């Protein structure tokens, strides 16, 4: 009589189902002496998945269960018996034969927006680094270190003959590290390589900003594009990124007990923010329009906005390399220089970690020291 092998599931605590194999009739499994009907796989799934992560977990677990079922069907049919240790090694080797590159691709496809673009860049670099398939068995400390070095040596598009900036390399390396960590969490990698291979360290960079004196000059200078001009001062007043400014609609402006404020979800962090806005911002924007209309309707279509800003800054007699993002830096440094505490500034900027905000405090301290050094006798 042939033995049937089925995948079964049993309810357990915490909205979970354990996954096991059921044999009929009973069999003697490798490393055991008694006949049994069941074989625990150490796998489980969410009974009612509520998120993309939970559904992905279920998919991975069921995929593994199908793999184990196929292996045990083969073992039962061919009467393959070996020790428990050999069995574990066998199972691990079977996992290691599967494609890490395919797993990396699947992880990339789960992302969206700017994050997906970042993952795509890293995935493209990974394909150049290893054009052929890469299995989980190929992932070693040496392999990861070599890929990290490969990223660090990528040529810079802005500075011919030089490698990309270290901070750019860190950005490229991050999705790969996340994929490695996820694979370990799903038990597809037996080691947590992120604990062994160090990340690319972030270098402190100079954050350009405008002083109050420079802002007065800029305000008095004509700009060839009034919408870009308005968006720039809006960012200076609120600290918002370009990606958030271009996406705001009039419905994001709310009236509370203490005045007007912005309620919106950050494009970068997905965090819901509530930022008070001053009378100057209200005056800048003018009369509100229909709730679903963009506050800056054409801003998202202006690809050359930083070139417009460069000419505007130059016309104002300001000799700094200013991009739109520098207006966010300006907001932060001005607030700190006026005595606003770091915690409050971090909330205005929507930082998840106050260490990010502390960078602006260093900028202000440096400016103070430069000012003091001007006093000479």
In a few lines, what is going on in this structure?
With 377 residues, the protein is α+β, with helices and mostly antiparallel strands.
Layout of secondary structure:
Layout: E1 4-12, E2 16-28, E3 35-46, H1 52-78, H2 84-96, H3 100-109, H4 113-129, H5 141-152, H6 166-185, H7 212-219, H8 226-238, H9 242-245, E4 253-256, E5 259-265, E6 272-276, H10 279-285, H11 305-315, H12 325-337, H13 342-349, H14 354-372
Antiparallel strand pairs: 1-2, 2-3, 4-5, 5-6
Describe the structure.
The protein is of the alpha+beta class. It has three domains: 4-96, no CATH class; 101-195, no CATH class; 212-372, hpI Integrase, Chain A. It is 48% helix and 13% strand. It has 14 helices and six strands. It has a three-stranded antiparallel beta sheet, with helices on one face. A three-stranded antiparallel beta sheet has the order 4-5-6, with no helix packed on it. A hairpin with a 3-residue loop joins strand 1 (4-12) and strand 2. Helix 3 (100-109) packs across helix 6, helix 8 (226-238) packs parallel to helix 12 and helix 12 packs across helix 14.
